[in-house]
Specification:
homodimer, about 575 residues, 31-stranded mixed sheet, 2 helices, about 45% strand
Amino acid sequence: MKRFFLFVATLAAALAVGCSTADKVVYLADFMTEDSARDAVPAVRAALEECARIDADRLVLPGGELRLRPEMATEKYQFISNNNESLKRIAFDLVGVEGLEIDGNGTALIFTGFISPFNVENCANITIKNLSIDFTRTFHSEGIVRGKGKDYLDMEFPADYNIDFPNGVLRFRDSEWTTYQYSSMLEFDSKLREPAFRAYDYWLWNYGVPAEKLPNGLVRIHHKDLTATIGNVMVFGARARYNPAFTLYKVDGFTLQDVTIYHTGGMGVIGQLSHDILLERVKVTPPEGRMISATADATHFVNCGGYLQMIDCLFENQKDDATNIHGLYMSIDKILAPDKVLLGWHNSGQFGVDFIEEGATVEIVDNKTMMTIDTRTVKSIKRLNKLYNEVTFTEPLPEGTAEKNVVATDDYYPEVLMKGCRMRGNRARGILLGSRGSMRIEDNYFHIAGAAILLEGDGNYWYEQSGTRDLLIKGNVFENGNFGSRTWGSACISVGSGIPEREQSRYHQNVRIEGNTFRVFDPRIVNFYCVDGVSFTNDNVIELTQPAEYKYLDNEYRYFVFDHCDNVTVDHPLAEARWEK
Amino acid sequence: MKRFFLFVATLAAALAVGCSTADKVVYLADFMTEDSARDAVPAVRAALEECARIDADRLVLPGGELRLRPEMATEKYQFISNNNESLKRIAFDLVGVEGLEIDGNGTALIFTGFISPFNVENCANITIKNLSIDFTRTFHSEGIVRGKGKDYLDMEFPADYNIDFPNGVLRFRDSEWTTYQYSSMLEFDSKLREPAFRAYDYWLWNYGVPAEKLPNGLVRIHHKDLTATIGNVMVFGARARYNPAFTLYKVDGFTLQDVTIYHTGGMGVIGQLSHDILLERVKVTPPEGRMISATADATHFVNCGGYLQMIDCLFENQKDDATNIHGLYMSIDKILAPDKVLLGWHNSGQFGVDFIEEGATVEIVDNKTMMTIDTRTVKSIKRLNKLYNEVTFTEPLPEGTAEKNVVATDDYYPEVLMKGCRMRGNRARGILLGSRGSMRIEDNYFHIAGAAILLEGDGNYWYEQSGTRDLLIKGNVFENGNFGSRTWGSACISVGSGIPEREQSRYHQNVRIEGNTFRVFDPRIVNFYCVDGVSFTNDNVIELTQPAEYKYLDNEYRYFVFDHCDNVTVDHPLAEARWEK
């Protein structure tokens, strides 16, 4: 039914292009006033109201540069998965819109302060294209290491960071005295423009580091065992992910084309409970002079369905993964009756992202093996608050269901195509794949500090649903990955699922790895556990490199590791080989 | 009309008491399960649902001790004036209820974590009585000063504060690892159980102090110029006021009787946009072993009307004033048309407290003199977000209206009676009076660190509407006040309004001071400016004390100061006298 609707919508859109004189077009320029130079948000609100009023087909931005600020923006409290809930301001807030294209016309959107660029909610058939997004002050902070000593670094920061030291603790503000809190530090290599070799996160649990200004103008920051290479960039991670660039919630049909996200305070694109998403020539990349692009994942898709495509995209230097496609698990915190459970969230990034609907089929999963016990149909739901739902099923719970088991929907699995994308320079991993739909990862380039492709999913820590069923990894280049923190992965392609009892678990299924090129200084090509069905064909090429920048010093030395896997075929000379330093 | 409604409601309630067998009574005990011992909140929710279902007259608590926790509680985002907006959990959430009495039956409500005890919203004729409120872990923190040196103190904290020092900064948590942030330090006198003589707030803008654990088990905290008397208590003020004990919003008729608030994370009672409130024998007081009661004002009333009474109450050792009764000013940030303005909030404690309604009469006020220019009637309102409203009037703005002028409603003025109340031991001031209704302050006892009675109000900083019209201060005892920070007042009874241009301003009117006793070591009895009509009759007694604890060392030496006042009569021998040390 949904498919049919989208087909009709697409057909209508195609016809509309064919008869473009019939398009109802709104021009943002018509709503701009003399105040718009400082803040175009009121004009954007007015233009979107006009779009709704006339049921417009297109909103055209004026080109050039637009400044946008939070003061006059739409406000709403949002629970956005894997970002931070808060009362947010939103520049372009599309709610209940069908069949609108926003043509940026090359406009550079320059935001100031805590504001989310785009929110698309309960919409269908939306296209946004031809624009870029940046902020006058980044949500993270960057400084150059100019000196070092035991437990300290001497840093040079941009003058406009407006630094001071209340109570002897470093504070970053912008020229308007807005504070930009930070919660971690991570060293990036200035020349390679990527996380420094084997650098790891310094977590700042109190959101501050003791610091003082030196007579030479540098800032000395103190932290136990703090060290870095002089000349490198220390990145102070933004405390929270308040302002993703594009938030999709219950959207059917979304296209993002020729859009560049230089910066945003959260993820680049976060889709939840949405279907049929296409990202084409979307770039997440920092501008000249900065190291970091988005402060979190470039893209992330949670409980999405339909067809999810990322084509010819560039995801680089974001502060977390390139993408993560998964579902949500709620935990059975209490069995209230034979047919009734109290479901709770245990990952604060998921609080309030209600996904269970009346009539939905859910799988009930053993949190220790991550294997599905059975499915049930939801009869009714009572939401207590952002933490808890009481859910009654149409039948009693399956035998063996226990508290701490987890529940996910059984029908939010996108087909995935990722093709021609380039991923590099970011913190952590490349792509995390957790859909049960068919997934094809083809002709991409990975130069990733951790695992390039990771199969995650667990019911005890992150509570992210995974369990691949049909994954093709074909024709990609994996170049010198796994140079970052050892916590970011165990091979180019690996499983990282939290499965306490692996013996009985075959959580992932059917992974085919064909015709890829692995140029590696680190011999860890595949590291799988709990997978049923793996083929690594002999058209995969493994080239051993010896780059000056990285050195493999670790104790692991197998190219391929399979633990608790069935039906594994590795048709390659190195299948059983050991690495010799 | 409202008056009539309340009369009828009161009559109905009286009849109901007369025929109590007809009362519909719900007993909380009937909804309690074995889990209620750990957390009675689900039982409270169920009991309140039952009250709504049967339109109950009374809800009776079981007596003894009840534990209440946030996990399963009702949730809503609240803008509560002079407290902190947030997504809150609420234990007793009364919405749209008419004619309910909650009889605590002597129950001690013991809360854990970030939860608001009572929220009463869009209700009429509600009574809550016979209960007490405390928390297992206070929102502020207290420690005893055991040692001192240049720029540091050595502190002893309770063991259950669960202290650690991430990045060398002091952190307080409870036994469940919930963090309790702090933003200030203030020294309290252990023997006198009040703010230490002339102690002032150390503001901690970064919400932390550098600290470390000493070998002797004490905690050394560092801050420039930090000092205190050994044996005194240093209070770490809670960072935010998230959880008032009683929040009233659009309530008509509210009675709180025989209720003790030992602690809460915000104000004790905060009423906004409500009418006819009675507090009788309400105590805000710390339990044995703690210095601080509520972390902010004991009571506070914003844009309230009808008759506001506080009778035989005790307000002591709260972290801010005993009460503050005022209206709200929004600022004219932009004149959009002859009849249309953009109104903005500029005090973050007022964000989102929308008070302007269609059809309301508002006064338009010169922010420099605080004098009313004229009134206008509101034709329409468009809320942009928590910061801004666009307001159109039925007529053009009065001549002379300028941007930065302020706007308040012209009809939210309670009559006030405060009688038989005892106020002492708290930070800052006693009572701030900003209603234009008739106010009688009779037979109270004040021993206050700053001014006992303060007439505030301004349109440039706090944006709190005041302008007294009829104030009687009679039969009170003012005992050795003004011993705290010099910023908390300039006399026992004083004006503290922010009025940039005083020459033309007579912001306050008609203050009569009769039959009071002033026992003072500090000669500052009255310090007024911009008042028209003052009488200080000769039945007021001024006794000069020479307590060992306090010493008046300052340069001011007039008992009575009147600046830009008219019609002043001081019938007292010390009227023109100067203080001789």
